[in-house]
Design goal:
Oligomer: single chain
Number of helices: 16
Bound molecules: flavin-adenine dinucleotide
Mean pLDDT: 91
Low-confidence stretches: 1-7, 450-458
Structural class: alpha/beta
Largest sheet: 7 strands, mixed
Length: 458
């Protein structure tokens, strides 16, 4: 008999994880050595048996939080071997200028990896780990939070599997999350007003040490280098609202004309773009926000199941890996498992919400260069450069530290307010004032920002 008063069948796992995606595999690897046998149930067939099976070439960025998990789990070296280091992003602006933004001020790279190849490494590691079983072709149709148990469908029919806890790692359209919703949890699943197409880009005209992007007001094309020397491209466009819009471009030809109008330079970079636009699937982006992630001592959500977000900061997976690390830490910190799960939820919800907001906002920063050129935008940039210890660029803080995303968001909001306040007090001319004057004007508002003598700001 288990602590929750339910008789479990001998051989039932301690933990059932719903979904063997990136986050499910990482969670299993963290959990099994400390908390007993784990069974991963995955509705799809084994992706390693059919490489390229989903027809996707998606590249994801690994940042410090992701590497922390991969190192903890002993797979960092294997993953590094299939990564491309990237030192920044080059914007190819509509007026013909280019703008390079380093990812970090000290030259550290972030790492691009094909999501499918990373997934295979994680599945191999999970399968080889003592105490982890992966069962493909098993769809979980519902979760019983009380027993706890899952109802599983496979080619033999349906059966019930009991366990001590269920972890929902089944992505944005999570079936596991439905069990929490049935108990009153509010979950918001929102289709974002952006859609994208993955486009294969030859590498001969682009520098392979960085990300490239072409902003065009409301649309954007981004390309990430692959180890093969080619690039994985993504065309992002609005679904509705002001053009350009996928909804307005009904067929392949219209889409090509729209593409050529917004990204004329790219028609030479990707010679078969018309064919690709006509042939490749259009995918939508979903954001998930959920006001509870756990149930007593029996259930928790991780990854996209509780915080799917826009991809523009490159943190959905990194944040999901951090969920797994924090969850195991919280469970290990107390013999009271319900308290452990509650601590996990408390420490993650605000952070996930913050990176989700930052990620959506980052699309507009990248897609619309005019935004960075407003007085507030330019002043923010100058303050960040002038006070490097006080204001660390947003992207760098998220990608190279494990600081709370929520505190990064709060500091961003403070910097916005500071820049707006300085302009209110001193006028837009402050944007092009000398460094000394800017320092002096900033000092009364943020005392620890200057070491210089007051140079007479009026
Ligand atoms: C264009 C794009 C670019 C991105 N770039 C980045 C990036 O640079 N960096 C980054 O960190 N993140 C990035 N992301 C986000 C990242 O891909 C996701 O956050 C990550 O894949 C989420 O992993 P997950 O395991 O939580 O969910 P998923 O990857 O969705 O995996 C869920 C798994 O559960 C299975 N499943 C679903 N329902 C059931 C069920 N009922 N029963 C059993 N199994 C089930 C699914 O088949 C799947 O295998 C990007 C996303 C997109 C779309």
């Amino acid at each position: 008999m288990e602590g929750n008063g339910v008789r479990r069948t001998e051989g039932d796992p301690e933990t059932v994880i719903v979904g063997a995606g990136l986050v499910g595999a990482v969670t299993a690897l963290y959990l099994a050595p400390r908390f007993g046998p784990v069974t991963l149930l995955e509705k799809r067939e084994d992706p390693r048996r059919a490489p390229g099976g989903q027809g996707r070439s998606l590249v994801v960025m690994l940042s410090a939080r992701g590497w922390r998990a991969l190192s903890d789990l002993g797979v960092a070296d294997a993953v590094r071997g299939i990564c491309v280091p990237l030192h920044g992003r080059r914007g190819h602006l509509p007026d013909g200028r280019t703008r390079f933004t380093p990812y970090s001020r000290d030259g550290q790279p972030i790492w691009a990896v094909e999501r499918e190849r990373l997934h295979h490494i994680l599945l191999d590691a999970a399968e080889a780990a003592p105490g982890v079983r992966i069962r493909f072709g098993r769809r979980v149709s519902s979760v019983d939070l009380d027993e706890p148990a899952v109802l599983v469908e496979d080619r033999h029919g349906r059966h019930r599997l009991t366990c001590r806890r269920v972890l929902g790692c089944d992505g944005a359209h999570s079936a596991a999350r439905a069990a929490l919703e049935a108990r009153g949890t509010r979950a918001e699943v929102r289709r974002l007003d952006l859609a994208y197409q993955e486009i294969d880009v030859p590498g001969d005209r682009l520098d392979g040490t960085m990300t490239h992007y072409w902003p065009s007001g409301k649309a954007m094309f981004a390309a990430h280098p692959l180890p093969s020397g080619r690039f994985s491209g993504s065309l992002f466009m609005r679904l509705e609202g002001p053009a350009p819009s996928y909804a307005a471009a009904a067929g392949g030809r219209d889409l090509f004309e729209m593409f050529a109008a917004h990204f004329p330079e790219l028609t030479a970079v990707v010679p078969d773009i018309a064919e690709q636009l006509a042939a490749k699937a259009v995918s939508t982006l979903t954001a998930v926000r959920c006001d509870r992630w756990v149930w007593q001592d029996t259930f928790a959500l991780l990854g996209d199941a509780c915080h799917a977000m826009a991809p523009f900061m490159g943190h959905g997976m990194n944040c999901g890996f951090e969920d797994a690390r924090v969850l195991v830490g919280c469970l290990g910190a107390s013999a009271d498992r319900a308290a452990g799960l509650a601590a996990y939820e408390k420490s993650r919800i605000e952070d996930a919400d913050a990176i989700s907001r930052l990620s959506y906002r980052h699309y507009f920063t990248m897609a619309d260069p005019a935004r960075a050129e407003t007085a507030v935008g330019v002043l923010r940039g100058r303050l960040t450069a002038l006070f490097p210890d006080r204001f660390v660029p947003l992207y760098e803080r998220c990608a190279f530290t494990e600081e709370s995303y929520a505190s990064v968001l709060r500091d961003e909001q403070r910097l916005d307010r500071l820049a707006a306040d300085l302009i209110d007090r001193h006028g837009t001319g402050l944007v092009s004032a000398s460094d000394d004057r800017l320092r002096a004007c900033t000092r009364p508002l943020v005392p620890d920002t200057t070491t210089l003598e007051d140079t007479g700001c009026s």
